[in-house]
Design a protein that fits this description.
Helices cover 33% and strands 23% of the residues. By secondary structure, it is α/β, with parallel strands linked by helices. It has 2 domains: 112 residues, Pantoate--beta-alanine Ligase, Chain: A,domain 2, CATH 3.30.1300; 299 residues, von Willebrand factor, type A domain (Rossmann fold). Strands 14-6-5-15-18-19 form a 6-stranded mixed sheet, with helices on both faces. The longest helix has 76 residues.
Length: 528
């Protein structure tokens, strides 16, 4: 044996001994590992299964809460009545959480309060793997609260107050519908300042009343810079619709015709004409008032856009009559001294006068406008004053709806057109066709203009289109059954979409439509 062999021999013996020891350990411990695996396998499978069961339970909770949210929102949007909200919510919930979905859901419990709808429910999830730990099911809970709330809404109701609304007390149903509309919107806001509602009761004119003089209806100051009419010096305001002399609050839509914008600065007021006539310095009847010698007076385009802000001429009905005088022409018999013994005469037009023998404010609606307000009581008080009277000019009502909701004069309650924190809407309602009044309409004496029903309809649509271009949401309502399909088509075109035009053939339908629109205008959101 060499010296090298002597050195490696102990190492080889040590290696062989270690190898033998490992083989002996492996032989003796194999059964122990198998036993341990048999013991731990259910635990390992249970832990894995538990993760699956827990993830499934989270999925059930997500579906349950989503179904509650969606169902509550849909139910609140569909009605304002507690019983219907509950029934609708249950129906929506069954659709959003069908029986075949994972987990067995219990029908929601619903609590309806003035502003909120609180909904809660549970679902049972039957476990698959956690049963090894004696956990057979999970009970999963979810709840949500829906608040019906407005965040900045300006809306003007343009409502038909014509004489036909007296039939079967239709005006009473309109008052009920309008009041319900107002109540629903104010009920759904946490701050009444988020709601502004204006009112335009219209007939063949619109009564602006004392607002035209810069005053509120009670005579207090509305605006120090708000006189928007030409008030003649010999006329005073009256609240008496049958007054023979006072101005009740209607205006004549301004007409420029072929006159210059500032023609009235060169015109002189004619006493007794009640603002209808102005005399030029050259003696012609013309100017800022009306030229009775013409029959082409037309306010276009200022009756279809918001460019003209006043002042307007007052309306007091009375025919403008010609005044004729005799004028000497030539002598037909002479005296011996050369003077004329007998003259020939001819009748010549000396001017015009205003005939006030009839009631001067006939045709002016009895109810007057209300600029947009957050005062719920004031709005409902003005609704209560609505009284049917006069003929139908829907384009006139729509024009003043624009003037109320616009941020520009003559009324400035409206926010800027591009203020994204607020929405603007107009609800326009009629019970009949536009008509050309035989004597007076908004465009002065019918005999002094050539504007017909087709013009009214075209101008109505022009106003609607321009409002929609400004982002105003328009709802239209045709009430009662005697409205032609043609007129319904105009109102359908006026609405923001065909779905936002409603036909209400009965009084009950009218009330339901106003309630539906008010709910659609409500901004509904989930409150945490």
């Amino acid at each position: 044996m060499t010296a090298a062999d002597n050195e490696t021999a102990p190492k080889n013996r040590l290696f062989k001994k270690a190898r033998l020891t490992f083989l002996m350990f492996a032989c003796c411990t194999g059964g122990t590992i198998a036993a341990m695996f048999a013991i731990l396998a259910p635990v390992m499978i249970g832990v894995t299964g538990a993760a699956l069961d827990i993830s499934q339970s989270y999925l059930v909770r997500q579906r349950l809460c989503s179904a509650l949210d969606a169902s509550a929102l849909a139910a609140v949007a569909s009605s304002n009545e507690e019983a219907k909200i509950k029934s609708e919510l249950l129906e929506y919930f069954k659709k959003n959480y069908p029986d075949e979905a994972i987990g067995v859901a219990i029908d929601p419990d619903v609590t309806v309060s003035t502003k909120d709808v609180f909904v809660k429910s549970t679902a049972r999830y039957d476990t698959s793997f956690l049963r090894v730990f004696n956990i057979d099911e999970f009970n999963i809970y979810c709840e949500t609260t829906v608040r019906r709330e407005i965040q900045g809404l300006e809306v003007v109701m343009v409502l038909d107050n014509t004489g036909s609304m007296s039939t079967n007390n239709n005006i009473g149903s309109l008052r009920t519908a309008a009041n319900s509309f107002v109540d629903i919107l104010f009920e759904r806001t946490s701050d009444p300042n988020f709601i502004k509602i204006g009112l335009v009761p219209y007939a063949n004119s619109v009564r602006i009343g004392r607002y035209g003089l810069g005053m509120n209806p009670d005579g207090t100051v509305y605006s120090n810079d708000h006189s928007i009419i030409n008030m003649p010096p010999d006329v005073s305001y009256t609240n008496n619709h049958n007054s023979q002399t006072g101005w009740y609050g209607c205006i004549v839509e301004h007409s420029r015709g072929d006159n210059l914008p500032n023609d009235h600065l060169n015109a002189t007021y004619v006493p007794g004409s009640y603002g209808q006539l102005w005399r030029h310095n050259n003696g012609d009847w013309d100017g800022f008032g009306w030229d009775p010698s013409r029959n082409t007076n037309d306010a276009s385009p200022y009756d279809v856009n918001d460019d003209f802000t006043g002042p307007w001429n007052i309306y007091m009905k009375g025919d403008v009559e010609e005044e004729w005088v005799q004028e000497r022409t030539n002598c037909r018999r002479w005296r011996s001294n050369g003077s004329c013994r007998e003259w020939n005469y001819r009748w010549v037009l000396d001017g015009y006068s205003w005939d006030k023998d009839t009631l001067p404010n006939n045709g002016c609606p009895k109810a007057y406008i209300l600029p947009m307000s957050s005062n719920q009581a004031a709005i409902k008080g003005r609704i209560a004053d609505m009284d049917p009277h006069g003929a139908t000019l829907g384009n006139v009502g729509m024009m003043w709806g624009w003037r109320l909701i616009s941020p520009e004069k003559p009324f400035t309650e409206g926010v800027a057109w591009d203020d994204n924190r607020w929405r603007k809407a107009i609800v326009m309602m009629t019970d009949g066709e536009n008509v050309r009044d035989g004597q007076y309409n908004y465009f002065w004496d019918s005999q002094k203009n050539q504007i017909g029903v087709s013009d009214y309809n075209e101008r109505f649509l022009s106003i609607c289109n321009q409002l929609k271009a400004e982002g105003v949401l328009i709802y239209t309502i045709t009430f009662y059954s005697n409205i032609s399909d043609t007129t319904k088509a105009f109102y359908r075109q006026c609405a923001t979409s065909p779905e936002q035009h409603y036909d209400a053939p009965t009084q009950t339908d009218l009330i339901k439509v106003f309630e539906k629109i008010s709910r659609e205008l409500s901004q509904i959101h989930i409150r945490s």
